[in-house]
């Protein structure tokens, strides 16, 4: 199988598109990080003041949470499975969109690379018979 065929097979798969979508999403979120960092920097003292009060409040609720934990864990696992499927589909859709933007140009480049990577086979030599002189 040629390299171009293998690449085409890979790029037509849903997991490939999902990975492309994840990459695009990661880039988008990384670009937002500096702004979010500055927001948290400005709220840090405010959050630190509330911390002891919140700790006491959560300590009082801990026993109730512990009793409900097994049932809540089952519900959460079911929701997580459903949500993971949705996210996978979303990333695959996003990946298809990103890949389609660049696929024409990339396809030409991959075809050129594939042709260059294929081994050149030497021409077959024909046998000639020698005549005795």
Describe what you observe in this structure:
The structure is a single chain. It is elongated and about 105 Å long. The protein has helices at 3-11, 14-117. It starts with a helix and ends in a 16-residue tail after the last helix. With 133 residues, the chain is mainly alpha-helical. The model has no long low-confidence stretch (mean pLDDT 82). Helix content is 85%, strand content 0%.
Give a nutshell description of this structure.
With 133 residues, this protein is an all-alpha fold. The chain has helices at 3-11, 14-117. 85% of the residues lie in helices and 0% in strands.
Distance between the termini: 49 Å
Mean pLDDT across residues? 82
Q: Which structural class matches the secondary elements?
A: mainly alpha
Largest sheet: none
In what range is the share of β-strand residues? under 5%
Instruction: Kindly provide the radius of gyration, computed on alpha-carbon positions and rounded to a whole number of angstroms.
Output: 29 Å
Helical stretch tally: 2
Number of β-strand runs? 0
| Residue runs with pLDDT of under 50 for 5 or more positions | none
The shape, in one word, is elongated
- Helical percent range? over 70%
């Amino acid at each position: 199988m040629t390299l171009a065929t293998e690449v085409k097979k890979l790029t037509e798969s849903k997991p490939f598109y999902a990975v492309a979508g994840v990459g695009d999403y990661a880039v988008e979120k990384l670009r937002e990080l500096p702004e979010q960092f500055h927001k948290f920097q400005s709220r840090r003292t405010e959050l630190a003041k509330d911390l002891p009060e919140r700790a006491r409040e959560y300590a009082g609720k801990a026993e109730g949470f512990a009793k409900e934990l097994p049932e809540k864990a089952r519900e959460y696992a079911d929701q997580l499975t459903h949500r993971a499927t949705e996210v996978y589909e979303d990333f695959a859709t996003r990946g298809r969109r990103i890949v389609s933007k660049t696929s024409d140009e990339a396809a030409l480049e991959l075809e050129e690379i594939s042709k260059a990577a294929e081994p050149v086979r030497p021409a077959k030599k024909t046998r000639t018979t020698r005549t005795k002189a």
